[in-house]
Design a protein that fits this description.
Layout lengths: L6 E6 L2 H10 L4 E7 L5 E6 L7 E6 L3 H6 L8 E6 L3 H10 L4 E8 L2 E7 L5 E7 L21 E2 L3 H27 L6 H28 L1 E4 L3 E6 L5 E6 L3 E7 L2 H5 L2 E8 L6 E8 H22 L1
Parallel strand pairs: 1-4, 5-8
Antiparallel strand pairs: 2-3, 3-4, 6-7, 7-8, 9-10, 10-11, 11-12, 13-14, 14-15
Helix pairs in contact: 4-5
């Protein structure tokens, strides 16, 4: 099925007067002016751009139709004119001394003002949010450094040490019987190389935990969440809630012993970035999950 509005009738008192107004003052295009009879013409105008819907200028022929001129909706806004440059078109209204009923304002759906046309019909001039791309100065850029990041729970360091201890314990428990049963591996240089490699990994791991733990921090803002991590190379993620597709609460067996949990955010980023914030208190993680899900649902409703 393919349906669309082709044109909307607007009752006018005179064809030429209406054409003059809509083409000269609102800068619409006259796309058709066909004479149908001595008193009736088929006149269509439309805003400039890619839109296809046009206004059919219908001259009133009876007293009842005359009474509807300028009041086809009983005082409500009749037509909604979208623009890609609100400032330009609003200035055009002022230049032509067109009556402004409501001054410009920023709404959740975009920038809007209400004006009255030649006949008294009310129009909304709107630049939708999706089309607003205003330039900002460097002074207006939000200062990330001013955001106080909260560290993760100190007990999370214990969780890391215990988890990695289990890992190295498992590796050693596998290597010992291998070296015991395979005599060709029982050479001093091989044994020392393996021991040295394990010790080096342990040292690097300790540095990873001690330095990396100090850099684990996060902050919650009204429109996004910030997460920082890393030891040699530090990364800071700023994730807008509008990009979050799913939020999970995760809790491992060791973390549960310390009352800790993690939040995993699945995002709609082009490179499929998923972020996990570890080392949170269980109740903090639950509250954070509820907050983020509420934000996701709120943003979805505002876009409908």
């Amino acid at each position: 099925m393919n349906q669309f509005l082709a044109q909307i009738s607007i009752v006018v008192d005179d064809y030429d007067r209406a054409i003059e107004y809509y083409t000269k003052q609102l800068h619409f295009d006259l796309i058709e002016d066909t004479k149908l009879s001595e008193s009736k013409r088929w006149v269509k105008v439309k805003p400039k751009g890619l839109g296809t819907c046009s206004l059919l200028l219908a001259k009133a022929a009876t007293d009842e139709q005359q009474s509807r001129i300028g009041n086809q909706t009983g005082g409500r806004v009749f037509l909604f004119l979208h623009t890609d440059d609100f400032k330009r078109d609003y200035q055009n209204l002022l230049n032509h001394q067109i009556t402004i009923i409501r001054e410009p304002s920023r709404e959740i759906y975009g920038t809007v003002a209400v004006f009255k046309d030649l006949y008294g019909n009310l129009w909304d001039l709107i630049e939708p949010v999706s089309q607003i791309n205003q330039a900002i100065s460097s002074a207006q850029i939000p200062k990330y450094s001013e955001v106080d990041l909260a560290p993760v729970e100190t007990s999370y360091k214990k969780v890391l040490y215990i988890s990695w201890s289990f890992f190295f314990g498992l590796v050693i428990s596998i290597l010992l019987p291998i070296f015991y049963w395979i005599e060709s591996l029982q050479k001093s240089w091989i044994v020392l190389s393996v021991i040295g490699t394990i010790l080096l990994c342990i040292v690097v791991l300790i540095a990873f935990i001690e330095i990396g733990f100090k850099n684990l921090a996060w902050a919650l803002r009204d429109k996004d969440i910030i997460f920082k991590k890393g030891w040699l190379f530090q990364s800071t993620y700023i994730i807008p809630f509008v990009k979050v597709q799913h939020c999970e609460l995760l809790s491992g067996p060791i973390g549960r012993k310390f009352g800790l949990a993690s939040i995993k955010l699945n995002t709609a980023a082009s490179n499929d970035i998923d972020i996990s914030i570890n080392g949170l208190k269980q109740d903090t993680a639950e509250q954070l999950k509820a907050f983020i899900i509420n934000k996701i649902e709120t943003d979805e409703h505002q876009q409908i």
